[in-house]
Amino acid sequence: MLGCSGIAMITLAACCALSDAQDLALPGPFPASSRSVTVTRPSSTTFTATVWYPGATNAASAPFHPTCPPSPILTFGHGFFQTVSTYQSMLAHLATHGYTVIATTSEGGLFPNHSNFAADIRTCITHLETQHATSGSFVFQRLAPDRVGVFGHSMGGGATILATAADARVDAAATLAAADTNPSSIAAAANVSVPVLLISGSSDTIVPPAQNQSHYNAARAPKSYPLIAGGFHCGYQDSSSFGCDSQTTLPRAEQLAIVRRQLTGWFDLYIKQDQTRWRVAWGPDRDADTRITSVQDSGLAVSLVSPAPSVVIFGTPAPCTVRVTNTSPRTLAAAVTIESASPNWSSTTINTASIASGQSQDVTVFLSAVAPASAPVTLTLSARSLADGGTRSWLSFSAAAFCPADVNRDGIIDFFDYLDFVADFSASSTAADFNADGTIDFFDYLDFVAAFSSGGC
Length: 457
Description:
With 457 residues, this protein is an alpha/beta fold. The chain has 10 helices and 18 strands. The strands form 3 sheets. It has a 9-stranded mixed β-sheet with strand order 1-2-4-3-5-6-7-8-9, sandwiched between helices. The protein has a 5-stranded mixed β-sheet with strand order 11-18-17-13-15, with no helix packed on it. A 4-stranded antiparallel β-sheet has the order 10-12-16-14, with no helix packed on it.
C-alpha cells in the first residue's frame, strides 16, 4: 500500500493528490491501524471506543503514520444492537484516506438512550481533541481538530443528526439509512447548519427510503439524498446480525463500494476542502453511477442572463453574465467562475456580495482562451458557496476558441478568410471591426493583414 514516506514535509492537499485519480472506493495511500480507547464523559463516567487511523502499518495499535499530514476527525455512530466491528471495512477505508475515525461502542443494548448516544458521539470529538494536545498520546500533534465530520448508520444516523445540530465543531455530516430517534432526528434536521449527505437504499425494509426522505425534507440546504437502487439496510456493514434484512438485488460488496465512494468524496470536499471532489458531490459527475439517484438542494441557483459565449476569440476575453439566486433560508455569498478540465481555458472569478434568502444578484465573468481550440469543449459555470467552500450550483455550455484571422471559423487560416474579411470590410459590417475600437477603418484592415500574415494568432 502506498504511503507518504520519504517526504519530509507534506501538505494535506498534496498528500490527497496521490489518490485524486483513483476510484474513491479503493483504499487511500495509508495503511489503516486501529486501537481501543477509553473515553471519559463530562460526568466522569467512561465508555470504550475504537479508533481507526493512518498507521505506520496495518497492525493493531501501530504508531501513527510518520509523514501523514494533520488528520481530520470523523466520529461514527453504530446502528441499533450492532457491534462496531461489523463496520470495520468502511471505517478502515476512511483511515487509509487520511482520516482518524472514532466509533463509540456505547448504547449497544436493547434499550439505548438516543440523547446519550448523540452526546457520546460528540464526546468522542472532545476525546481526540484532548489526545491531540496530550504529550505521549499516539495522536499527539497529529490531528486537525478544527476539521470534523460526523456520520452514522440507522440509529447512529439519527444520532448523527442530533449531534450535528448541537455541536458547532462539526463541518459536515453523513447518514446511512438514518432512523428517526427519540428525540426526533427528523425535527432536529431543521437545526443542522452544515452540509448533510443522507444515503438510503431502495430495498431497505427496516428504515424505508420514505424515512430518509423525511429527514431530507426537514433539513436545510445544502443537502443531498442519494438513493442506492437495491440498497438494503445492513448493506452498510461487513456482515449481517440480529435485526438485519437480506440482500435482494444488489450484492453487499457493491453497496459497500458505493458507500465508500460517496463518503470519501463528501468528506474530502467539506472536511479536507478538496475542490476536485465537487464534481462528484454536486457537479457533472454526480450521476456517473447509474445505481444512484440523487435529489439535492445546494441552496444556490445559477442561470444565464445572456447567452453563454459559444465562440471565443483568442486574446479577447468573452463576457458571460449570470444570475445567482439564494434559495436557502440563510444569507449567502458565492464565488462565480467558469471551470474547465483543459488548461487551454481560463476564467475570472467574481465573488457576489451577500445575498439574502430569496434574492438574486447578477455578475459577469470573462472567459479567455489560452490557446486556439476550434473544436467545441464543454465548460462548466459554477457558483460556489463561500459559507462552506464546497457547495456549488452549476450549468454547462459549449464553446470553441478561434484565432482572430479565422474569419469563417473553420479552424483554418486560408484565402477564404481573407475574402470574407474583405467582403465584411467593404460592407462596413461590424464583423470587420478587427481591433474592436468601435470604428471600421483602415487600421482594422492593417491589423487583419498583419494577423493573417502571421498565421492568425
